[in-house]
Amino acid sequence: MSNGNTIDIVQLVSDSLHEMNMTLASMLPTEPGFDDLEHKRDELETKLKRLVRGFFADNTKRFISANDQLVEINRRMLADLQSLQNMKDTIDAVTNLVGALDQFIATVFPVAA
Predict the structure, then answer these.
(1) Within a domain: residue 113?
(2) Is residue 46 part of a domain?
(3) Distance from CA of residue 59 to its chain's centroid?
(4) Is residue 7 part of a domain?
(5) What is the number of alpha carbons within 13 Å of residue 8 lying toward its C-beta?
(6) Distance CA 90, CA 102 (A)
(7) CB 14 within 8 A of CB 48
(8) Cβ proximity of 13 and 44 under 8 Å
(9) Quick check: 44 and 17 in contact, CB under 8 A?
(10) Which of 33, 45, 71, 108 sits between 20 and 30 A of 11, alpha carbons compared?
């Protein structure tokens, strides 16, 4: 069930529970049906609590899963950055080598002017 639907259901049950509470508050405990309505109200509250716990447990699993995915993405990004750094270091080393070879060649095989 998607989060939007779960939130809608939680809101609907919560609203129903509120209406039952308002009805019970307007009744005398001795009125016919009071005990039955109070019992059903307690059942509804128990179901709402279970629904809310399930909603949070489901979201916790999603956050944990998302966190694991973010850790993996971060690891790959760091590896890519390290690879880019290694490539830059390699290019710098080759550039230095070419410069050193240029100096060597210029020293060993000077161009006659």
Answers:
(1) no
(2) yes
(3) 9
(4) yes
(5) 5
(6) 18
(7) yes
(8) yes
(9) yes
(10) 33
Separation CA 28–CA 19 (nearest Å): 16
Instruction: Tell whether 51 is covered by a domain.
Output: yes
Q: What is d(CA 36, CA 40) in angstroms, rounded to the nearest whole number? A: 6
Would you report the helix, strand and coil content of the chain in percent, each value rounded to 5?
90, 0, 10
Q: Which amino acid is at 36?
A: D
Task: Write out the two tokens for 109.
Answer: 């095989």
For the record, the structure tokens of 53 come out as: 């716990």
- 6's CB contacts (< 8 A; 6+ apart) are 51, 55, 58
Task: Give burial (CB, 10 Å; 0-12/13-18/19+) of 52.
Answer: middle
- Give me 5's structure tokens: 């639907």
Return per-residue pLDDT of the chain as tens, 113 residues.
Answer: 455 667 788 888 888 899 999 999 998 999 888 898 999 989 999 988 988 888 777 777 777 777 777 788 878 888 888 888 888 888 888 888 898 888 888 888 877 65
- Number of structural domains (the chain) is 1
